[in-house]
Automatic annotation (TrEMBL):
This protein's UniProt keywords: DNA recombination, DNA-binding
SUPFAM superfamilies named in the record: DNA breaking-rejoining enzymes (SSF56349)
DNA-binding is among the record's keywords: yes
Pfam families found in the cross-reference section: Phage_integrase (PF00589)
Protein name stated in the entry: Tyrosine-type recombinase/integrase
Family: Belongs to the 'phage' integrase family.
Xref: InterPro entries: DNA_brk_join_enz (IPR011010), Integrase-like_cat_sf (IPR013762), Integrase_catalytic (IPR002104), Tyrosine_recombinase_XerCD (IPR050090)
Keyword Transferase: no
Organism: Effusibacillus consociatus
Tyr recombinase domain mapped to chain residues: 1-182
Length: 195
């Protein structure tokens, strides 16, 4: 998961012109929703309900529906890209290559490259640490957990089919884990004498 400082550094870069509007939209989607890279790349214009402020997709991995809130930061980033920089195309996909013939971005590596480029500009995770949308998915879940959001709600937000898929994120809440450990240390222990 990202530290508060790392997340702020990323937002600072996203406020500049150093990142294209397409890449900003991809990063904001991943950073605020935890959506999988494959689902970002498969996002279609028709999946965005501007009136209802939601994004409705069928997840590639599970083939299950997922409804995400169209938060203002996400909506604004998408509008800037779609209205100002998205190449003219009949493609139903939101995110297109900038080079003709303006094909939809399809490879997971496209999202990874975008996220790592933004991380580099922000001075975040410049070593061999985990990067990409997987880290951002983990980050979203961890932030929700720290805010006291129920595990079932986190599971639903991330589009997990099995609620126990969210268990991996439970290990990221270090403060709660420390509380558990300190609570255990005050439990009186009775030692039975061996006979």
């Amino acid at each position: 998961m990202l530290t508060l400082e790392e997340e702020q550094s990323i937002w600072d870069v996203l406020k500049t012109d150093a990142v294209s509007s397409r890449d900003k939209a991809i990063m904001v989607l991943a950073l605020l929703t935890g959506i999988r890279a494959v689902d970002i790349l498969n996002l279609k214009l028709g999946d965005i309900d501007w009136q209802g402020d939601i994004i409705h997709i069928f997840q590639q991995k599970t083939n299950k529906p997922l409804v995400l809130p169209l938060l203002p930061a996400i909506g604004n980033a998408l509008v800037r890209y779609i209205m100002n920089d998205r190449p003219e195309s009949d493609s139903p996909y939101v995110f297109l290559s900038y080079n003709a013939p303006h094909q939809p971005l399809k490879e997971h590596s496209a999202c990874y490259a975008i996220v790592t480029k933004i991380f580099a500009r922000a001075g975040v995770r410049s070593g061999n640490e985990l990067k990409g949308t997987r880290l951002l998915r983990h980050h979203v879940a961890s932030k929700m957990l720290r805010k006291g959001v129920a595990v079932q709600a986190i599971s639903s937000t991330l589009g997990h089919v099995k609620p126990d898929s969210t268990d991996i994120y439970l290990t990221t809440d270090e403060e709660k884990l420390r509380d558990c450990a300190s609570t255990l240390s005050i439990i009186p222990m009775k030692v039975r004498e061996l006979q």
